[in-house]
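The records we work with from here on pair a chain with its fold. These numbers are not coordinates but entries in a learned vocabulary of local backbone shapes. To see the layout at work, look at the sequence and tokens printed below.
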Amino acid sequence: MSTHLSSGAQAPDPTIQDPRQRRTILVGVCVALMAVIASVSGLNVAQPELTVAFDASQTEVLWFINLYTITLAALLLPLGALGDRWGRRPMLVTGLLLFGAASAAAGLATSAEIMLAARFLSGVGAAMIMPVTLSVITSTFPDEERSKAIGVWTGVAGGGGILGMYLSAVLVDLASWRWLFVLPVVLVAVAVVMALRSVPNSREESRHAFDAGGSLTSVVAVVGLVLFLHEGPQRGWTAPVTLISLLVGVVAAAGFVVWELRRKAPLLDVRLFRERGLASGSVSLLTVFGVQAGIFVVLFPYFQAVLGWSGLRSTLALMPMALLMMAASGLAPRAAARIGSRSTMAAGIFLGGAGLVLMAAFVSVDGGYLSILPGMLAMGAGMGLTMTPSTEAITTALPRERQGVASALNDVTREFGTALGVTLLGAVLTAGYRSAIDSRLDGVPEAAADRAREGVSNALTAADGADPHAQALVRAAQESFVDGWQQAMWAGAAVMAILFVHVLARGPKQRDPAPRAGDGL
């Protein structure tokens, strides 16, 4: 662990020596994490149903989804720090109760206003839960077992969203969108029982007041920047709301850095980013989650518009990638013990980039799912190998008494990466599609052609009224989408190549293998 000086008195060592209790703690925090992660992606599969249920516009439905993620990202740092002070078990249990109640309210909502309020409160509860789930692990597991536990945690964090999306699609298909909120409520109930029985009430004493100024500026900065990334593709990058969000976010971020540099006990000591481990871990997570999220934006339209699959089948098609990612996350600590954290990160990045290259090289309209499956599997394995050592690099850069902040920083990095990847790779895909479709619209009626330029889904809708050009229009849209897909894949591969070089040069220092523990987690 890092030897940075604490801002207050050291609490008794909270390390848990009983392997059974450690396993119960790990299961409990991962169940809580799964509830949070599943709620991030769950509503995506029910957008048409929500539009009908609340007589809502597409913008309102997007706010049902985005308000949760924005609230979660904005409150992670301050609530992670409060968890260190107040106590990790009280923060976890309180967050679970709030999250569960808000999820139940969302499932029973009778108006858009109630849904929005419920999603906001769910985001607050999630921001209380998520950093604690990791800080409990890093503060209570002994050094020789911590990497393995972090590997399990990162596997759930990385693959849990896909698993949650699949379960959500099943519930929407078999029942209704309201059943989407049954899953998190059940997970919350299980997590509360396990937390009360097994999670220790570790907390850290501090002689310094809580950094309210840093907390406020961090909230404003995150809201501004995430809102900019969410609203830019919808409203346009030069729209007043988009530009104001960017300005507010940048100014607040600069103010946060200045404020933290002047504090004796800052919320987040930004000087720590000079350390190789924290800097490379943060950059790696930002990039990996950005590329992963951006690829999902590309994959779903391919499955649905090119292959003609349903939402449920499209989500199921992602499961091999998710399962391999989770397995690789669990194996990463063993690889790091043999070849070092930096080499493991670099190998994962290389493998993930190779997966993108495979998908870009072999994807086609006629090749179907098998043309992209090898690339998906390589990418899943690579992402899993990268996430665990990156997360450990971030959490070990801060001392034990600041693990709530370390965990929150890890989570904020993931959220920013996700928003950034969706925005950038989505833009590359859109630009590539529009550039390719123009040369394939000869002879198509002007109205149908204009509709086709808006996107592949629009083109398929326009084809219904474009006889005798319907088949040609569908083929043109699908081939143009594949062209845009390839550009997005090559862009992602280029980013991964840059990250690979960075990690080799500035990655975390190699360390000796941890001693083997006979009692396991």
Notes: Residues 1-10, 512-519 have pLDDT under 50 and may be disordered.
